[in-house]
Design goal:
14 helices; oxidoreductase; 394 residues; 17 strands; 7-stranded mixed sheet; zinc ion binding; formaldehyde dehydrogenase (NAD+) activity; Rossmann fold; 2 domains; EC 1.2.1.46; zinc; 6-stranded parallel sheet
Length: 394
């Protein structure tokens, strides 16, 4: 292993490919760790959460190596790793989790208490998430490997489906988590806000869980066209300012059983300006009494680029009284990927969920990543999968 390169955030709107250090068996504080492995990256995806940082909407520092959606091959392992071998092909949950603390032992790996000195929860290549180096690179170190990593049972079969399996690191479990938390089940009517990759993954998960109708709302015509192409009901938010009327035009009533916010804090309203609480408020308007709202979309504690002063510290103009009056259930936070990734892996391996086609996966080289970030920021209807070593079959 030598000549590691990675996608590095420099300043708002700018990333570049740089030579970076080879990964070491060390935590972010420089302490030796023996429970880790070194991976050769097979695939690593660009996520909407990465885009928030690249837009300058977080306190991400210059020089941050990006990338929390990682699939790779074990090429080295520490002496405490017992369940994995060199050559294994594995999926990496974006959560860095110890497996030992109170929250991990309860299954809430998105808020591990030990991998981040600043707050609960850790992630690779992400602001305020513990300083773990990201995986949009050639190689990366993964700690607590026996606990965190999901080994694919058959390498050749996995490589033949790698465009699907690469989604197990984040967006598919995140979408599934949002659908479960929205109470989706057989015969449900569901509204998903946002036709980006996470919204499409949430819609696909709702369909897998038995939803009768899945609607996806967005302002982006290309994304709505793609959502319709893969079998969902597109809701053109530019066509009307009352979401309930748009829902009623599809299912005959202005409310749904469950709603999923896959947009987050950079939401925009009809005038084109940002309204960071608008999606959550719309969710409460269209979700039936005693219904549930899943919120996999990202909300932050600090947003230096916010258009509203209160939103700079995560304060939103939320119509909570409406949700309270309708007895809504809300569920927020980082997805605990380990709760879902094995079951979803089986669904992918057995052709139950063509997630790569649903999110329109586009494989690119590492050198193409900066241009892909620009295209993603412009709203292209695609999910970019980086192939740093040319290992993904055409």
């Amino acid at each position: 292993m030598s000549g590691n390169r990675g996608v590095v955030y420099l300043e708002p709107g700018k990333v570049e490919i740089q030579n970076i250090a080879d990964p070491k068996f060390e935590d972010p504080r420089g302490n030796r760790i023996d429970h880790a492995v070194i991976l050769k990256i097979v695939s690593t995806n660009i996520c909407g959460s990465d885009q928030h940082m690249v837009r300058g909407r977080t306190t991400a520092p210059s020089g941050l190596v990006l990338g929390h959606e990682i699939t790779g091959e074990v090429i080295e392992k520490g002496p405490d790793v017992e369940m994995l071998e060199v050559g294994d092909l594995v999926s990496v949950p974006f959560n860095v989790a110890c497996g030992r603390c109170r929250t991990c032992r309860h299954g809430d790996t998105g808020v591990c208490l030990t991998v981040n000195e600043g707050r609960a929860g850790g992630a690779y290549g992400y602001v305020d998430m513990g300083g773990w180096i990201g995986g949009q690179a050639g190689y990366v170190m993964v700690p607590y490997a026996d606990f965190n990593l999901l080994k694919f049972p058959d390498r050749d079969r996995a490589m033949s489906k790698i465009r699907d399996l690469t989604m197990l690191t984040d967006i598919l479990p995140t979408g599934f988590h949002g659908a479960l938390n929205a109470g989706v089940g057989v015969g449900s009517t569901v509204y998903v806000a946002g036709a980006g990759p996470v919204g499409l993954a949430a819609a696909a998960s709702a369909r897998l869980l038995g939803a009768a109708v899945v609607m996806i709302g967005d302002f982006n015509p290309a994304r709505l066209e793609h959502a319709k192409k893969v079998g969902f009901e597109p809701i053109d938010l530019a066509s009307h300012d009352r979401l309930g009327d748009l829902v009623e035009a599809v299912i005959g009533v202005p409310e749904v059983d469950g709603a999923i916010d896959a947009v987050g804090f950079e939401a925009v309203g009809h005038g084109g300006g940002e309204q960071p609480a608008i999606v959550l408020n719309q969710m409460m308007e269209v979700t039936r009494a005693a219904g549930s709202i899943g919120v996999p979309g990202l909300y932050v504690t600090e947003d230096p680029g916010a258009h509203e002063q209160a939103a700079k510290t995560g304060n939103l103009s939320l119509r909570l009284g409406l949700g309270w009056a309708k007895s809504h259930s809300f569920h927020t936070g980082q997805t605990p990927v380990l709760k879902y990734n094995r079951q979803l892996m089986m669904a992918l391996l057995h052709d139950r969920l063509p997630i790569a086609d649903i999110v329109n996966a586009k494989v690119i080289s590492l050198d193409e990543a900066p241009a892909a970030y620009q295209q993603f920021d412009e709203g292209v209807a695609a999910k970019f999968v980086i192939d740093p070593h040319g290992m993904i079959p055409a």
